[in-house]
UniProtKB/TrEMBL annotation:
Record keywords: Membrane, Transmembrane, Transmembrane helix
Source taxonomy: Eukaryota, Metazoa, Ecdysozoa, Arthropoda, Hexapoda
Localization: Membrane
Regions that span the bilayer: 12-33, 85-113, 125-145, 175-196
The organism of origin for this protein: Triatoma dimidiata (Kissing bug)
GO biological process: sensory perception of sound
Pfam families tied to this protein: Clarin-2
UniProt record similarity statement: Belongs to the clarin family.
Official protein name in the record: Putative clarin-3
Top-rank taxon: Eukaryota
PANTHER family named in the record: CLARIN (PTHR31548), LD47387P (PTHR31548:SF1)
Length: 218
């Protein structure tokens, strides 16, 4: 491969590293869901809730000033979420990071050498990037299901609901969720770069086919 095409392959290393950073940031932040909260019969009450995969934050005003509280999401699972959807989201996120890391490692290897193995060579780059995309899409879809089935209706615990707090219809996807969407787009760009960077290989294969056929016919 010429310098341009080496650059295309090596560019996917940076893309994969950026994807890892985005996914790690999404895992560790509290903004998968953001919601307002109100007490309809209390004009001075209001609040804002941030829900992550593991932790969250509630800022509620009961009418006596803002009260901030850290949420341990797994502890409130039965009240707010569907456990299999939450677990599936976490697993897909971790798998996405793992396969993005594999894509980054093999991008460097393919820039420095020309591996002949399927998993270590150019086909492997397609495989690792595609697997990362699929798992990240899995996380996006599972969390969207979580939102549509549970979180858009309620992010309040039983105590808060007993005091007339509601978040029904006020929740939306936060920054952490959109970081995963951005990572998927970057991973797609990686696949495009790989395709562009290996165009000469495809051309050589096409050029050798007629020669082989002529020898076979001769």
């Amino acid at each position: 491969m010429n310098l341009y095409k080496h650059g295309m392959i090596f560019g996917t290393f940076f893309g994969s590293c950026l994807c890892i950073g985005l996914l790690a940031a999404a895992l560790g932040t509290r903004y998968w869901i953001v919601s307002n909260a109100v007490r309809p019969n209390y004009s001075k009450s209001g609040g804002r809730i941030f829900i992550g995969l593991f932790e969250g934050e509630k800022n509620l005003n009961f009418g006596f000033g803002l009260r901030c509280e850290t949420i341990e999401v797994p502890a409130l699972m039965s009240e707010m979420m569907i456990y299999p959807l939450w677990l599936g989201t976490v697993i897909c996120m971790c798998a996405g990071i793992l396969f993005s890391a594999a894509a980054a490692v093999f991008a460097v290897i393919n820039t420095a050498t020309t591996p002949i193995g399927i998993l270590t060579g150019i086909p492997g780059l397609y495989i690792w990037n595609t697997l990362s995309v699929l798992f990240q899409l899995g996380a996006i879809i599972l969390w969207a299901l979580q939102y549509h089935k549970k979180l858009r209706f309620n992010v309040m615990n039983e105590y808060e609901r007993s005091h007339e707090w509601t978040s029904n219809g006020m929740a939306f996807f936060g920054l952490s969720y959109w970081l995963v969407v951005a990572s998927v787009l970057l991973q797609f760009i990686n696949i495009i770069l790989i395709y562009s960077g290996t165009s000469d290989i495809r051309e050589k294969k096409k050029a050798t086919k007629p020669v082989i056929e002529e020898k076979a016919n001769g």
